[in-house]
Amino acid sequence: MTKQTFIKGALILLAAGIVNRILAFVPRIALPRIIGPEGVGIYQLGYPFLIVLLTLITGGIPLAVAKWIAEAESQGDARRVKQIFRSAMALTLMLAAALTALFVWLTPWITTHLMTDPRVFQTFRMMSPLLLIIGVSSVYRGYFQGKQNMIPTALSQTMETVIRIIFALLFAKWLLPLGLAWGAAGAMLGVVAGEVAGFAVLLLHYARERRRRTAAPASSPSDEQASPPDVRKPAYGGRASAERIPVMRRLVSLSVPVTASRMIGSFSYLLESIFTARALLMAGIATGAATAQYGALQGMIIPILLLPTALTYSLAVSLVPSLSEAAAKGDKKTIHIRLHQSMRLALVTGAPFIVVMLLFAEPICRVLYNHAEIAPMLKWIAPVGLFIYLQAPLQAALQALDKPTTALTNTFIGAVVKLVLILKLASMPELGIYGALIAININIVLVTVLHWISVMRFVGFRMKWLDFLKVGAAMLIMGAAALWVMNLRTLPALWLNLVAACAAGVVVYLVLMVALRIIDRSDAARLPLIGRWFRT
User: Fold this and answer.
1) Cβ contact 497:490 at 8 Å
2) Is the pTM of this model over 0.90?
């Protein structure tokens, strides 16, 4: 198995994340053209329940697996790696099976009593296999990430995205003659097909490692240590089950705080939608208009803002095992180096997106959605994007340093403040949906600042504020260059001028990053494909 460095692992996941984020816009644009806004609404109704159930199954277990396996690897304890994997798989299978059975049993009652549209029944039925598939896949991903091998995760995510897009659109079109409910269910069936494909990629990598271990000399300790555990036969005799129990207990203790933190996020999202709708009604906005405004915010504006999180996700995934390994060795210097690398990458990569969203909100919304009237929302939320991009590495650091309860507390405080502010601000007629947007912005800033303070307190980490000043100056110059190119309007189409302006701005920004020594030769040398050109 190939172990990557922290930066290389992050870049592998970043490449996959960028591809996936770009591809994710295909169904957002194409699906409404097939099943219409009403069909998309039916399709989306099932997601809140799915998110809550998946959080219960996968909220903390994969992270605990990655963290604990990284620690065991740093100590050369191959036997412990096998115990962790087997225990995590057993725990996940039990949870997934129980929740799937419960979900299938309660689906008729949920769709007729809790949901406002009973046509969601078919979508719920199609959705039920996802709990088991995603649950098992998450354990494999946690295992490979703990081994600091990010290639299986990246490839499985890309395969899942491609297959999901193709089959969601195909199944929706094929089943639509049966009715709108079946068209929406077809789109959900495409999601299932994508998850099956991603799971198949993980299994192929697992099987390849087993064959490699079998072909290697049996006496080689390094091969035994590097090989993935064999889940089909016990390696420890009669003690296997007894030893798995304390391992499972620790897995639960490690994963519960993370799961609780993510459950806060899931329930916060549900309550946010309810509170926003009621507050807008209190502000005198009609129900249909309120639903449309909130849908534009969550379904159109937020996805644009989250595009750079392809990087922050990859940083967070790579950071957990890297910091866990360093913490297990008591290597505080490496902890500081990894934190600084991840924060600097998040800052440098996220900054140009902020500039583009602020300056070109209207053309972006017009090109992507043909709805320029939602552009002010993008301008309002764009500045806090940088806090979102910095938040993920900070939260991953808290989890890797055995401080998940702190991350949970910070998230809870932010959620309470957000919900209170939504009720207060969104109910004001002069603010309306922008009151909810202000509340969301304050939540993002508050949680990020709390995470930052916590990390500083626990490990004494400090960012170099000069980096922020340099990046800020580069953002201003980049914005001026991009705006100048956009105003020239030399190309015949709006989207061509937008692409040219963004490209020119990014080139100027990268040149400034090199000139200001934010990016150096060693950073460029780590880039895939072109990195060898910068190596001496």
Assistant:
1) yes
2) no
